Amino acid sequence: MDEKYYKLLKEQFVSKEAVLTEIINLSAICELPKGTEHFVSDLHGEYDAFNHVLRNGSGS
Predict the structure, then answer these.
(1) pTM, whole model, 2 decimals?
(2) CA-to-CA dists, residue 52 to 10, 16, 29, 36, angstroms
(3) CA nearest 37: which of 7, 10, 6, 58?
(4) What is the DSSP string of the chain?
(5) For residue 41, which phi and psi values (nearest 5 degrees)?
(6) What residue spans define the domains of the chain?
(7) Choosing a second label site near 12 at 20 to 30 A (CA), which of 26, 32, 38, 43?
(8) What is the mean pLDDT of the chain?
(9) Contact call for residues 38 and 58 (beta carbons, < 8 A)
(10) CA atoms within 13 A on the CB side of 16
(11) In the prediction, which pLDDT does 13 show?
(12) Radius of gyration of the chain (CA)
C-alpha cells in the first residue's frame, strides 16, 4: 500500500488489530440479508384497495 493510505489508517485506528476488526465487521455487514421490499401498483384502477394497502403498512 502507499504511504498515504497507511497515514489515513493511522489517523482513524490505533493498531493493526483495530483495522482488522473494522474490516471483519464491515465484511459481516455486507453479508447480511437484504431487507424486505414491497412493490405495489394501482394497475386496474382499484384505488380504494390500493390506498388501503399503502395506509396500513402493507400488512405490518
Answers:
(1) 0.52
(2) 54, 54, 35, 19
(3) 58
(4) --HHHHHHHHHH-SSHHHHHHHHHHHHHHHTSPPPP------TTS-HHHHHHHHHTTTT-
(5) -150, 145
(6) 3-55
(7) 32
(8) 85
(9) yes
(10) 0
(11) 94
(12) 23
Cα distances (angstroms) measured from residue 9 to each of 3, 5, 6? 10, 6, 5
Q: Which residues touch 19 (CB under 8 Å, ≥6 apart)? A: 9, 13
Instruction: List CB contacts of 42: < 8 A, sequence separation 6 or more.
Output: 50
**pLDDT at 58 (0 to 100):** 54
pLDDT for 60 equals: 52
Confirm if 38 and 53 have CB atoms less than 8 A apart: no
Highest mean pLDDT: which of 13-17, 31-35, 55-59? 13-17
Which tens digits make up the pLDDT trace of 38-50? 777 767 878 887 7
Place of cell 471483519: 24
